[in-house]
Design goal:
Blueprint (H helix, E strand, L loop, with lengths): L4 H20 L5 H18 L5 H28 L13 E6 L7 E5 L2 E7 L11 E8 L2 E5 L1
Parallel strand pairs: 3-5
Antiparallel strand pairs: 1-2, 1-4, 2-3, 4-5
Helix pairs in contact: 1-2, 2-3
Length: 147
């Protein structure tokens, strides 16, 4: 049974885009780029059924490279944008200070049942033991707090 280039590239496109979605979860994008190129080759093969394997492969390669050139820069910018930590709504929550926090002096706060290292946010006055503070930012495992 001979497989046409149109059907081959359609199956190849579904496999590559599926792999990007399921396995890579939009972290690599190369499977996506080649999948779009294969989809384009399949579409061109459907429009022009007499297209040879060589021409279909050329459409696939050019389509993949063009897709990568057009989509890679904006997708990398999208990936690099800082986003909230999934499932963590720490910003704005109240904490109790258990070790004084001052500019240049790290202290500790009690949040979510645990002791956390904390620093004072810019422009805030020192916060004494027993006072409550508000989480302004999260840097790794360090909380940046203020009044």
């Amino acid at each position: 049974m001979d497989m046409s280039p149109t059907m081959f590239y359609l199956i190849f496109a579904v496999a590559l885009i599926g792999a990007e979605l399921i396995i890579m979860q939009f972290s690599v994008f190369w499977f996506l780029f080649f999948g779009v190129g294969a989809l384009l080759a399949s579409l061109v093969g459907w429009i022009f059924p007499e297209l040879s394997w060589a021409w279909s492969t050329g459409v696939f390669l050019v389509g993949s490279l063009a897709t990568a050139a057009l989509l890679y820069p904006p997708l990398k910018r999208w990936q690099a944008k800082p986003g909230p930590i999934a499932g963590n709504d720490v910003i704005g929550q109240s904490v109790e200070v258990i070790e004084q926090i001052a500019q240049g002096k790290e202290g500790k706060v009690l949040w979510s049942g645990s002791d956390w290292p904390a620093r004072l946010a810019e422009g805030n006055e020192p916060i004494d033991v027993g006072d409550h503070a508000v989480i302004k930012e999260l840097q790794g495992i360090r909380l940046i707090v203020g009044k």
